[in-house]
């Protein structure tokens, strides 16, 4: 019922774009907020964004605001993270997860059912 699976990571040059996908179930998408997070080697897990279960409200971290956009496609039960103007410090494993508290906060402790992660490498 509550599950997510990330995909779409890869190697991209600085300034490039990449779109990550978070495949989930219809039940999850319609009833829970979905968050995006990332973790670079040696660093704490960092919140990136949260998309509300309605698909109408989104929260973004200051570090990526204006560069990343979260959206969803109902037909295939997928939440997307469109990443533009990528920088080397965007390099990380990216995760999506289900909001267990319903507040769409940019706080990893609020989320459960983490995906396996997808690696994003930004380098020349």
For this entry, give a set of tags.
124 residues, mainly beta, seven-stranded mixed β-sheet, 1 helix
Lay out the secondary structure:
Blueprint (H helix, E strand, L loop, with lengths): L3 E4 L2 E3 L5 E7 L1 H6 L2 E6 L6 E6 L6 E3 L7 E6 L4 E6 L8 E8 L11 E2 L5 E5 L2
Short account of what is shown:
With 124 residues, the chain is mostly beta strands.
Mean pLDDT: 95
Q: Runs with pLDDT <50, length 5+?
A: none
N-to-C span: 40 Å
Let me know the largest β-sheet: 7 strands, mixed
By secondary-structure content and strand pairing, the structural class works out as mainly beta
Strand content: over 45%
The number of distinct helices, counting runs of at least 4 residues, comes to: 1
Count of β-strands: 11
- Estimate the global geometry from the Cα principal axes: globular
Please estimate the helix content.
under 10%
**Helix and strand succession?**
EEEHEEEEEEEE
Rg measurement, Å: 13 Å
Characterization of the model:
The protein is mostly beta strands. It has one helix spanning 26-31; strands at residues 4-7, 10-12, 18-24, 34-39, 46-51, 58-60, 68-73, 78-83, 92-99, 111-112, 118-122. The strands form 2 sheets. Strands 2, 4, 5, 6, 9, 10 and 11 form a 7-stranded mixed β-sheet that branches. Strands 1-3-8-7 form a 4-stranded antiparallel β-sheet. The longest helix is centred in the first third of the chain and has 6 residues, at 26-31. It is globular, with a radius of gyration of 13 Å.
């Amino acid at each position: 019922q509550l599950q997510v699976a990330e995909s779409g990571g890869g190697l991209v040059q600085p300034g490039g774009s990449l779109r990550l996908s978070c495949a989930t179930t219809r039940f999850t998408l319609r009833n829970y907020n979905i968050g995006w997070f990332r973790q670079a080697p040696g660093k704490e897990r960092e919140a990136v964004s949260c998309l509300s279960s309605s698909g109408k409200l989104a929260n973004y971290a200051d570090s990526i605001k204006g560069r990343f956009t979260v959206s969803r496609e109902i037909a295939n039960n997928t939440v997307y993270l469109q990443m533009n103007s990528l920088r080397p410090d965007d390099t990380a494993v990216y995760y999506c997860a289900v909001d267990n508290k319903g507040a769409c906060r940019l706080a990893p402790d609020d989320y459960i059912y983490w995906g396996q992660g997808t690696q994003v490498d930004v380098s020349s």
